[in-house]
Amino acid sequence: MFSKDLSLEIHYPVYLNHLLPIVIIAPIVEELIYRNGIQELLKQSYSIHFSIFIASFFYAMGYVLLFNFSSAIFIFHFLIGVVLGYSFHYTGSILISISVNFLYRLFVLIALTI
Predict the structure, then answer these.
(1) Which are the contacts of 18, defined by CB distance < 8 A and separation ≥ 6?
(2) Helical segments of the chain, H only
(3) Does residue 90 contact residue 100 with C-beta atoms inside 8 Å?
(4) Which sequence spans correspond to the domains of the chain?
């Protein structure tokens, strides 16, 4: 007569689907490429400031190519790249720049869902 459904449905916001690739994996890959790769390679031949500038330029261009050209997107991501570059340089730890990138992306994801 009465059916009891004992299954548990878990409802969660759709943005959680993006948590792993956007907030966790992307910062690791980006920091290994741009900070631990390009920035460190350039630092062997050029000043740290120039190295951070060029690595940040490539970081920003990646977003411009991904989201179509916009000077606002370029400038914003260039500045984020500079912050990440100096956080890596001054701490000497890729884990710090990964953490800063992670927190930035988490903040953006939460802000976009409010």
Answers:
(1) 109
(2) 26-30, 40-43, 48-67, 71-91, 94-113
(3) no
(4) 57-114
Taking each helix axis from N to C end, the angle separating 94-113 and 71-91, rounded to the nearest 10 degrees, works out to: 140
Please list the pLDDT of the chain residue by residue as tens digits (114 residues): 555 555 445 455 656 676 778 888 999 999 999 999 999 999 999 999 999 999 999 999 998 888 777 888 899 999 999 999 999 999 999 999 999 999 998 888 888 777
Amino acid at 17: N
Q: pTM for this one?
A: 0.81
Neighbouring residues of 39: CB distance < 8 A, sequence distance ≥ 6: 51, 52, 54, 55, 85, 88, 89
Distance between CA atoms of 41 and 45, rounded to whole angstroms? 8
Q: How far apart are CA 95 and CA 8, in angstroms?
A: 38
